[in-house]
Design a protein that fits this description.
Elements lengths: L2 E9 L8 E11 L7 E8 L2 E8 L5 E9 L1 H10 L3 E12 L2 E8 L7 E6 L13 E4 L8 H6 L10
Antiparallel strand pairs: 1-5, 1-8, 1-9, 2-3, 2-6, 3-4, 4-5, 6-7, 7-8
C-alpha cells in the first residue's frame, strides 16, 4: 500500500516566485463524483498521462496509487469521461531541504494558489516559508476533486 503524507497551505504574496525551479502545466479530471471511498483522477502533465486513485478522506495521510497510461488514452478519458476538471500550473520550489509544489489554478479556480509538501512522517517538523498562509489540510474544499466539482469562483466566501 502506498501512503501519501501531505500538508496543504494557502499561499500569500508573490515571494515564492523567485524560488521556482521549474513549472509544468497540468490538466486533470475525475472519473466519478463525490461520496465514494476513493477519488479516481486522470492527469495530463507535459507529454505524460497517469491514472491516480486516492482514498477519499480528508487529512494528512491518504492511501494513494498512481499508474502511467498512454497519453492518447488519458486525453480521451479527460475529454469524454470526466465529471469535473482542473487546469493549473504546478511550480516546484526547494526550501530547507523540501520540495514544495505550488499549484496556481486557472479557469473557474483562477485566483487560488495552494502549496503542498510531502513529508516522510506525520510528525515531521519543517520550516514554514514566509509565503505560507493558512493551513488547509483539513479543509476538503481545497482538495482537487472538490475544486473540480465546486470551482473556487463559485464559493460565496472565497479567501
Amino acid at each position: 500500500m502506498a501512503l501519501e503524507i501531505e500538508r496543504k497551505f494557502l499561499v500569500v504574496g508573490q515571494g515564492w516566485r523567485a524560488q521556482v525551479r521549474r513549472s509544468v502545466e497540468i490538466r486533470q479530471g475525475y472519473l466519478g463524483g463525490e461520496g465514494g471511498r476513493a477519488s479516481v483522477r486522470v492527469r495530463l502533465q507535459g507529454n505524460a498521462a497517469s491514472l491516480n486513485i486516492k482514498a477519499a478522506v480528508v487529512g494528512r495521510a491518504r492511501t494513494e496509487y498512481e499508474y502511467d497510461i498512454p497519453y492518447a488514452d488519458g486525453r480521451e478519458m479527460l475529454d469524454t469521461l470526466c465529471v469535473g476538471r482542473i487546469d493549473k500550473i504546478r511550480h516546484y520550489v526547494e526550501c530547507d531541504g523540501l520540495t514544495w509544489e505550488i499549484d496556481e489554478f486557472g479557469g473557474d479556480n483562477a485566483g487560488l494558489v495552494v502549496a503542498e509538501v510531502e513529508l516522510a512522517s506525520l510528525d515531521q517538523v519543517f520550516v514554514r516559508p514566509p509565503w505560507l498562509g493558512r493551513e488547509v489540510t483539513e479543509d476538503q474544499r481545497y482538495y482537487n476533486q472538490y475544486l473540480a466539482l465546486h470551482p473556487y469562483r463559485s464559493w460565496p466566501d472565497a479567501d
